[in-house]
């Protein structure tokens, strides 16, 4: 089961790589500062395949991580991660530009993905503290706060892309860190008690 946590490393890493590469290779003059990530998967964009692959890899990877993390981080955290994974897969299936209805459904899926992504580190806080991973717990709360402010700003300010990428990346970094510790056995529950977390987690 621990091996499934690798999905929490691969998924977010692939997602970040996709939008980073797409920012330089798209043929629609999209800006990483001004334009939302989903525009890279627009039906008329040459980077649609790249960004769609990033979305799908994130969805599958974080979904596997959710299964792996349930016993360690608790059912609520797993539920938030699973919902984020499902929302991201829905985003991949609902590309911008297909129709007005698809665009609206895409927006709903994106909003659900944002909210559940922010909820995951908050839900994990108690479990991490019980495991002695106080720094990781605090980092998760901080990441969630930054993400909430950034994603709110992305709706109100013209620099949508920059704030969106910041908000998503801080939580993705928390997921990658937590998944790495879980996959390597430095953050786990055995016999009802936690193993000693690494210095990074403390």
Q: Proportion of β residues?
A: under 5%
Give the radius of gyration. Answer: 17 Å
Can you give the mean pLDDT? 93
Instruction: Please state the overall shape, judged from the principal axes of the Cα atoms.
Output: globular
The number of domains is: 1
How are helices and strands ordered from N to C? HHHHHHEE
Helix % is over 70%
Helix count from the secondary structure assignment: 6
Supply the helix-strand structural class.
Answer: mainly alpha
Could you give the count of β-strands?
2
Pick out the low-confidence regions.
190-195
Give me the side-by-side strand order of the main sheet.
Answer: 1-2
**Main beta sheet: strand number and arrangement?**
2 strands, antiparallel
Termini gap: 23 Å
How is this fold's topology laid out?
Layout: H1 7-25, H2 48-73, H3 75-93, H4 100-130, H5 134-156, H6 160-183, E1 189-190, E2 193-194
Antiparallel strand pairs: 1-2
Helix pairs in contact: 1-2, 1-6, 2-3, 3-4, 4-5, 4-6, 5-6
Structure description:
The chain is an all-alpha fold. It has one domain. 70% of the residues lie in helices and 2% in strands. The protein is built from six helices and two strands, in the order ααααααββ. A two-stranded antiparallel ribbon has the order 1-2. A hairpin with a 2-residue loop joins strand 1 and strand 2. About 3% of the residues have low confidence.
């Amino acid at each position: 089961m621990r091996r499934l946590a690798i999905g929490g490393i691969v998924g977010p890493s692939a997602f970040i790589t996709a939008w980073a590469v797409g920012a330089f290779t798209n043929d629609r003059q999209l800006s990483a500062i001004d334009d939302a990530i989903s525009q890279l998967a627009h039906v008329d964009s040459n980077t649609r395949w790249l960004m769609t692959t990033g979305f799908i890899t994130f969805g599958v990877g974080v979904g596997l991580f959710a299964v792996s993390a349930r016993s360690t981080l608790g059912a609520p955290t797993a539920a938030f991660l699973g919902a984020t994974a499902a929302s991201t897969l829905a985003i991949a299936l609902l590309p911008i530009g297909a129709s007005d209805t698809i665009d609206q459904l895409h927006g709903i899926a994106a909003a659900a993905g944002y909210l559940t992504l922010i909820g995951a580190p908050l839900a994990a806080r108690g479990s991490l503290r019980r495991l002695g991973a106080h720094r990781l717990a605090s980092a998760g709360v901080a990441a969630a706060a930054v993400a909430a402010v950034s994603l709110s700003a992305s709706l109100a300010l013209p620099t949508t892309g920059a704030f969106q990428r910041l908000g998503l990346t801080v939580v993705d970094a928390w997921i990658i860190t937590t998944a790495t510790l879980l996959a390597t056995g430095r953050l786990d529950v055995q016999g009802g008690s936690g193993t000693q977390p690494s210095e990074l987690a403390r």
